[in-house]
């Protein structure tokens, strides 16, 4: 049996009771580490907060483990119970869909244990979830690569009066360009995009394309460390949010569409005073 | 302190460890009963599965309690710890946003404990969450009332190649027309829209409007009892899904947009054989 268990967004105590039972009954426990494990106390060597709660060892499966060694992991799951832990909900990312497909192709039993993800927890800012359009991802720009495929999507959402959830780039365990050239693997330090960087990129693209999809006056909500004790939610224009220090990662951003009165009341609470 | 705790989608064991701690430490526990508590073993009188797990009494707060008596509940939360439990995630419905606004206006401390909701758990069917457009709600038609405001939204989503999540109507504790006329309250039995009814209504509207937003050949995914042990996921055309018995509620429906290869692989697993 393969359990795919969502850990939720905060810390180790955000696992569900069902998820905790699955983990405790599993022979082998992997945790996926290539999105974010910032608040779960996971270090490459030390005992993590997860291990303390579970009373058993947790193996960190980084991107390479999952993509290159999925078959070995699935073979284990054919003989015994294996739990694969994922930050947020298991279906936040394509990779996990792929893992389920592979498992099902091998005839394995798969049980998915859901949890909160940014896709629904963003509701905390007061904007109604059913009034969001397509979700976009904002990648880190480099000198040579400044993709703007998110622009027409924001434009579309705003034309329809819908809110836009912007997921911000996370770069963990990226091979450095230098190491790729030299043919041996060595990694860049992890990078998490801030709301500040996201807005700067958005405004750069707007200036280049000049189609007024949005402006520095456009109302947004910045959310940092969603689901954590010290979560931070601030509503304001892009220009205003550029001045806010949102602190440690993870960050995400919502570009506000047309609002209803209850939505506005909530945004007022989160407005910059 | 007011805790607003998401219960998730399956049964009493889908609460998070953090949520369970909040409930156990609270002086008073309410559970909101006007969306769905089908699988949580809650009866108006008997001891529920929730109460067994929590080791304390749970008061059922139906729509009237929440809307009419919110102030009394918030007064309690000013003096002691109160937990308000919600099926799914706390921000699936507007009502809870309103409760947070009221609590914050009174200067109360509010802690939201997130969980899975249909808005992210629907990812289990393999269609990527960031490729959904605006979510729609399909209401029960009556003889006099056959609203089709969802139609242009589906049309829009499909034009953009996006998937459409259709939430199906739930009628719990609706005053009967007869009782309203007689001036005393008495309620209709609960009604939960099936995938069959939803598709029939969709096709009726398409026939009336004739703008080819979709047809009986349009690919869909029907999901029943999402997050439960006996959850059912079937992919097929509207016409095909009309022939499927999805069993007990709750049901929801996805109208599929343009698909990527990994999405298609997953849909194949769920296709009608």
Automatic annotation (TrEMBL), chains A, B:
Pfam family for this entry, one:
TP_methylase
User: What Gene3D superfamilies is this protein classified in?
Assistant: Cobalt-precorrin-4 Transmethylase, Domain 1, Methyltransferase, Cobalt-precorrin-4 Transmethylase, Domain 2
A GO biological process of this protein is: protein histidyl modification to diphthamide
Q: According to the UniProt record, what class of enzyme is this?
A: transferase
Spell out the molecular function terms from Gene Ontology. Answer: diphthine methyl ester synthase activity
Q: Which terms are listed as keywords in the entry?
A: Methyltransferase, S-adenosyl-L-methionine, Transferase
Question: What is this protein's function?
Answer: S-adenosyl-L-methionine-dependent methyltransferase that catalyzes four methylations of the modified target histidine residue in translation elongation factor 2 (EF-2), to form an intermediate called diphthine methyl ester. The four successive methylation reactions represent the second step of diphthamide biosynthesis.
Similarity comment text for this entry: Belongs to the diphthine synthase family.
What is the name of the protein in this document? Answer: diphthine methyl ester synthase
Task: State the organism named in the record.
Answer: Iris pallida
Q: Specify the taxonomic lineage.
A: Eukaryota, Viridiplantae, Streptophyta, Embryophyta, Tracheophyta
